[in-house]
Amino acid sequence: MPEQITKSTAVEAAEIAARSGGAFTQWSRLSSQERALFLVAIADALDANRDELVSIAAEETGLSEARLTGELNRTAVQLRLFATTIADGSYLDIRLDEADPEFALGQRPDIRRILVPRGPVVNFSASNFPFAFSVVGGDTAAALAAGCTVVVKAHSGHPRLSVRTHAVASEALTNAGAPAGVLQLVIGQEAGVALIRDEHIKVGSFTGSLYAGRLLADEAAARRDPIPFYGELGSVNPVVITPAAIAERGAGIAAEYVASVSGSAGQLCTKPGIVFASSAAALEGDISAHVGQVGEHRLLNKNISDGFDKRREEVLAADGVRVIAEGSLRRDEDGNAWVTPTIVAVGIDAFRRAGDALREEAFGPLSVIVESGDDADYAALLDEFFEGNLTTTLHVGAADSGQHLDELVRRAALTSGRVIFNQWPTGVAVTPAMQHGGPWPATTIDSTSVGTAAIQRFLRGVAYQNAPQDMLPAELRDQNPEAVPQHEDPAGSSWSWGKV
Amino acid sequence: MPEQITKSTAVEAAEIAARSGGAFTQWSRLSSQERALFLVAIADALDANRDELVSIAAEETGLSEARLTGELNRTAVQLRLFATTIADGSYLDIRLDEADPEFALGQRPDIRRILVPRGPVVNFSASNFPFAFSVVGGDTAAALAAGCTVVVKAHSGHPRLSVRTHAVASEALTNAGAPAGVLQLVIGQEAGVALIRDEHIKVGSFTGSLYAGRLLADEAAARRDPIPFYGELGSVNPVVITPAAIAERGAGIAAEYVASVSGSAGQLCTKPGIVFASSAAALEGDISAHVGQVGEHRLLNKNISDGFDKRREEVLAADGVRVIAEGSLRRDEDGNAWVTPTIVAVGIDAFRRAGDALREEAFGPLSVIVESGDDADYAALLDEFFEGNLTTTLHVGAADSGQHLDELVRRAALTSGRVIFNQWPTGVAVTPAMQHGGPWPATTIDSTSVGTAAIQRFLRGVAYQNAPQDMLPAELRDQNPEAVPQHEDPAGSSWSWGKV
């Protein structure tokens, strides 16, 4: 019997936002090394409470224990990653201009620049990642690391897990001596909207649907003082498979494709939703066989089940669609759908005519193979059909090369944040070089929500001019006690100086 | 007799935006070194046409030839600065994750991340910097350097200069072999609004009033596909002068203050608009004397003259205001105001009661000294009165130190982008460490429009996963022909890897 989770009121949200503002004063003044220790304390607490947290998550989301255990591990590693990132101090992008009395355009003063946290953040949790994009997930870890305080809006799909994860993290922070109010939680849409409007909140972040994300982005932009809103809203993650790739590795591609479409029941931001191939003929036998081996999987909740059910019916009913694997969909007593993968093929002309019915993201295990013919110009097709995606995947063979392929790679980079070769988009490394974000509608402000560069969402620059050494942040001083990397621009350089 | 400048229509704006999109394909593919040479070509052309450009600018803006010559020099230096910045390649923030078969959470692929240009930019020129923040000013230089194409919306205050500067720069680009359409110009508000709405345009930048900036920011946010809009909207640039500073350097401070308020007739974004001092008594004799030596200066145009006239009347009429230097204001036959500085003092309580009448920016040579009493808590005053400013200036003495001053410095950094000690805000170095931007309403998205970090406005990240060497941008290859700095994350590091 699930315990009752009470929704936060708008009044409570206002109090929580004010508390976040108060906590920011203390949290932002800690050294990076001090904040790093608190992040590690949260990671340790996740590890220590693994069994309980995974069990609640499995019950609320229907995701497998293996997947959830991996996700919890990743979430803990992610917190430690940001601890490492800030301990080094290179993220502060320290720049020191030496004073120069004989500058190109007159005198130049001593100027020292550092990045500082933007302020309290509201972070809207995702349905499909109850750990990695929720209470202490990526944006929370990056924001806390940057020196921002965080208020998390729990996702309605896993409220008990959200409350419990918050309790575990809060206890770890308190025991480690963190200021109160650094990480808070609200429940319910009303509180979430109140927060994005609240004057104490200086940044919004979000992972979810285009519809909800756009509403919140509009709220952030309509404030008396607009704030940055980093939303990940939707992506179909196109894949191109060349004839040469099919000839060389057709069977392996078919197997990997089915695994990528069906993993976590297709409820991944980077699921390959649309595949361009000259023809599906050489792949469909293998695809069909592999789908037959995929067990039934529950979708996250009733809302997502309804959405997937509707999209799947639209796809199956679209003119010219040929079913490769119809998949199954049955509802349980809670209204949750249990599904196996649906994979269809469609000719390029029918795909073109079908419009959004085949082009929009279907959140679940469904993918469309567009049979583009032998002479397809894949670069032109990417341009024609896609505005912005998290990823574009290219399966190419040894015979593929030259100007045609160069153009395809360029178009892929123009319309997405990650270009993948001969692998699949549904694994995202949490590393320095990762980019998880792309042009609209993949993200609202194109930036990354995964990897160490994600910390940049939560930072702004401040320059100190002609400051006495003891008035400078420690990282900007000549003495540089924490040995943070400092980029110096020595006197005698040719930069300019003028009046603004 | 000024030639007639025809306003661009919305239809022309659409054609220009489409041309910018076409040119972007070519411009963004050039190497950084190639783009750098084109920036230098524009700088050389400015230098070669200095006399003519300064003469048109002086006629249109009323700014002095000395000031305009300095500004043109700065603009040329700024273009060369960005040429140097991109030639080095560190701005690309290259990150290489080595493939790692034994990663913390499974296998890790080879991932390589680079920054790429966002796309065509519309850049709205400023009234007060006909060179440095106009056709080939800071945002244009940074955007072109990043690989974006640019459409400039000319400011109505200097249309002939805009057309001529654009012609000079275009000729230089063409002669150097640049693609057509890299830098274009439109005239008039209708075309400007059409551009911020146009689907080919991916970034907006702006320097001007809160009113116009907010309108454009709202347009950018309301698009079907919202785009980043970097606007610099307004700043009163508070100054704190401690009793110790007055005791040590009162006469010098008074002289420098008058110079900072009156330079370019106070029409600078960083003019010190509000000064907190325990009392103005020790300064006002010197201030008055120095103002008496400032000659009459024309304001930029009739709009700005009207605005300044109104604000000045409001300030002079506010309850409790004591005039230190009334200044003068007369209109010429074109409606332009000719002015000398107005400086007033007011007690803290009267300042508090006066609200926006004394607190809002007055664009022109006017500044308010707030007499805060001997026991003033300047940190609390900054907090009470200011939301966001480009700069905060602290004049302190040798006797000032300790917790009280630490708190003041922290609050200054919290509410502004540059904190200046014992100097004045109206000089902005165009250098790596400069920050010209601050919390709302100083800028819409807190970022810098001056200095090398300004290039970050125009870049987004793209990661390449498991790419064959010959499919990678040159800067990401092992061979690294241009020896761009590459930050490597070797196999064996502890980052994480999971499913998204």
Structure description:
2 copies of one chain form a homodimer. Chain A has 500 residues and is α/β, with parallel strands linked by helices. Chain A has 2 domains: 236 residues, Aldehyde Dehydrogenase, Chain A, domain 1; 183 residues, Aldehyde Dehydrogenase, Chain A, domain 2. In chain A, the strands form 5 sheets. Chain A has a 7-stranded mixed sheet with strand order 13-16-17-11-10-18-19, with helices on both faces. The first copy, chain A, has a 5-stranded parallel sheet with strand order 7-6-5-8-9, sandwiched between helices. A 4-stranded mixed sheet of chain A has the order 21-4-1-22, with no helix packed on it. In chain A, strand 14 and strand 15 form a beta hairpin. Chain A is globular. At the A-B interface, helix 4, strand 1, strand 4, helix 8 and helix 15 of A face helix 4, strand 1, strand 4, helix 8 and helix 15 of B.
Keywords for this structure?
homodimer, 500 residues, alpha/beta, Aldehyde Dehydrogenase, Chain A, domain 1, Aldehyde Dehydrogenase, Chain A, domain 2, 2 domains, seven-stranded mixed β-sheet, five-stranded parallel β-sheet, 15 helices, globular, disordered C terminus
